[in-house]
Amino acid sequence: MKLYSYWRSSCSWRVRIALELKGLSYEYVPVHLVKDGGEQNSESYRSLNPMRTVPMLELTEGGQVRRLSQSMAILEYLEERHASPALLPADPYLRARCRMLSEMVNSGIQPLQNLAVLQRIKGELKGDDKAWCAYWIDRGLTAFQASVQETAGTYCLGDAVSFADICLVPQLYGARRFGVDLAPYGLLTRIEAACASLPAFQAAHPDRQPDAQPA
Amino acid sequence: MKLYSYWRSSCSWRVRIALELKGLSYEYVPVHLVKDGGEQNSESYRSLNPMRTVPMLELTEGGQVRRLSQSMAILEYLEERHASPALLPADPYLRARCRMLSEMVNSGIQPLQNLAVLQRIKGELKGDDKAWCAYWIDRGLTAFQASVQETAGTYCLGDAVSFADICLVPQLYGARRFGVDLAPYGLLTRIEAACASLPAFQAAHPDRQPDAQPA
Prior knowledge:
The structure is a homodimer of 215-residue chains. Chain A has a four-stranded mixed beta sheet with strand order 2-1-3-4, with helices on one face. In chain A, helix 1 (10-21) runs antiparallel to helix 8 (163-177) and helix 6 (115-123) crosses helix 7. Chain A is α+β, with helices and mostly antiparallel strands and 215 residues long. Chain A has ten helices and four strands; from the N terminus they run E-H-E-H-E-E-H-H-H-H-H-H-H-H. Chains A and B meet through strand 4, helix 3, helix 4, helix 5 and helix 6 of A and strand 4, helix 3, helix 4, helix 5 and helix 6 of B.
C-alpha cells in the first residue's frame, strides 16, 4: 500500500495511526500542500484524486490499482479488511457513538480549518484565519467533550482505542496550532495523553514523518 | 424512534431517505433552525445534542433512551441494525468508494454551506454567503462527478441505491438554492432523476415534511 500524505495534515495523520495500530506496512508518498501553490492542485495529482486532498490510499486488489480518498472511508475500509485490533466497538449503539464522535471532528470541525478554506477566508474575505479556526474548534471541542462523557474510560469509548481517539488526537494538535486554550478540555487532554503513550500514535505523529519540517 | 429534523436540512434529509428506504416508521420532531435565533441553540436542545445540529435520532435500547447525531453515524447505525435493503455494496472496495463519495459531500461540501457557517461568513466577515457556498459546491461536485464515473450505473454505485445517492440528492437541491449552474453535471442530475422516481426519496423531500414552509 502507498499512502499519499502530508506530515501536518490531520486527516492523513488519522490514517497513519490506524495503519500503525493494525500493524500494516506502507510506502509514504509525500504531497506538499503548500509549496508552489500545493502539489495537490497539480494536474497529475488531480487525475488520481479529483478532490485534491490527502490522505489517499493506493492499493492493489485483484491485480488492479485502486485508490481511496476521504479518511473516514479509508478507516472503515481498513477495519473491514484487517479486523484486528478492532477500532470500532462491537455493540451497535457504541459503534454509532464512536462514529458520531469521529464525525464531530471530521465534518464538524476539520473542514472549517482545512488549508483551502483558510486561504479563502484570508485571501478573498480578508478575514482573520486563526480566529476563524479557533471559533470552530472551540465550538466543536465543547460539544465533543460533553458527548464523550457518556462513554469515556481511558479512551473515548472505554478502554479500547477507536476511531474517535484517532480523530481527536490530531484535532487537539490543530487546536494548539490555532491558539485555542485547552484548559477547559481536561477530559480530552487526559485521553490525548493516554494515546500519546502508545507506539502507534508516536510513529504516526507529524514530526516523525519523512516530509516533516523543522519548527 | 423519533427524528429531530428540519425540513430543509440536507443532513436530516439523508436520514429521512434511509428510514423510508428501510421501511422504518418514526415520529418527526421539527427543530426550527432559523426562528428566534434557532431552536437548536436553546438550552433544552443543547442538553440533548451539544453539537446543536439536526438530525438527531432518539431511540430506546434495553429500556434506555439513546440519542445519536451526525447523519453518517446514523446511516451506518441503521445499516447495521436493519440490514435490508442494503445501502452499502457488499464488496469492501465498493463499500469504501461508496463511503468516499458520501464523505465528499458530508465533509467536503456540506460543512461549508451549513447555516452556522453562512451566518459567520455574512455577519462577521461581511462576505457574500451565496458566492461562498457556490464556490465549494462547484468544487465538490466537480470532484464527485469525476470520481463517480468509475462505478456509476443507474445510481452512484451500479444499480442499487446507496449512501452515496442519499448524500448526493440533497446536495444537488442545495446547489440549486445557492445558484450553482448544474449544466456541467449531467451524470449527477441523471442519477438524481433516477432517485427522484423512487417513493422513498419522494416521501423524504423537504416539501413533504410537516414543518415545510411555502416558497
